[in-house]
């Protein structure tokens, strides 16, 4: 098991390395910047008088964390949706009927099919409302005091901890 996991991570790291190398070669060749997350990380890695703040291993670890976090939240949402559907047979029947009507006997759902699955979309949205992914629940801290839309009466209080501004 451990060697299989190590092989999978090696393959994943090779994909990350190839993307970083391609981006660095593009920069050297004068290609325009994409101004995405990878560009920002590479800028930080090369800053401070050429001394690398992020080495390749740190970048790999960071990308692995991002990749795993995205996969984990998606699988968690699917698990919660299935658990909720198992508790509500009428909703399960509606989802199954909608899938049978739109997808039929095909085994794969195409991206274009998603627009034709409004009930399934509603189930996923309700699942995310009832069981939001963990990062949305982390407390946040403001950096400055300010006022949000005065019409709703929200005020950000300096250094207040919590999920919602007061």
From TrEMBL:
Family recorded in the similarity comment: Belongs to the cytochrome P450 family.
Any matching Pfam family: p450
Gene3D superfamilies: Cytochrome P450 (1.10.630.10)
GO MF, one annotated term: iron ion binding
Keyword 4Fe-4S in record: no
Record protein name field: Uncharacterized protein
Keyword annotations from UniProtKB, A to Z: Membrane, Transmembrane, Transmembrane helix
InterPro entries found in the cross-reference section: Cyt_P450, Cyt_P450_E_grp-I, Cyt_P450_sf
């Amino acid at each position: 098991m451990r060697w299989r996991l190590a092989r999978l991570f090696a393959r994943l790291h090779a994909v990350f390395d190839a993307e970083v190398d391609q981006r660095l070669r593009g920069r050297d060749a004068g290609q325009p910047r994409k101004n995405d997350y990878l560009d920002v990380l590479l800028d930080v890695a090369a800053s401070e008088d050429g001394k690398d703040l992020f080495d390749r291993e740190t970048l790999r670890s960071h990308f692995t964390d991002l990749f795993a976090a995205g996969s984990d939240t998606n699988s968690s949402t699917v698990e919660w949706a299935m658990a909720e559907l198992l508790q509500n047979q009428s909703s399960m029947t509606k989802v199954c009927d909608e899938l049978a009507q739109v997808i039929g006997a095909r085994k794969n759902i195409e991206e274009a099919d998603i627009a034709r699955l409004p009930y399934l979309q509603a189930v996923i949205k309700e699942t995310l409302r009832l069981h939001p992914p963990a990062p949305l629940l982390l407390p946040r801290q403001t950096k400055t005091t300010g006022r949000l839309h005065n019409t709703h009466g929200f005020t950000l209080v300096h250094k207040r901890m919590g999920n919602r501004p007061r």
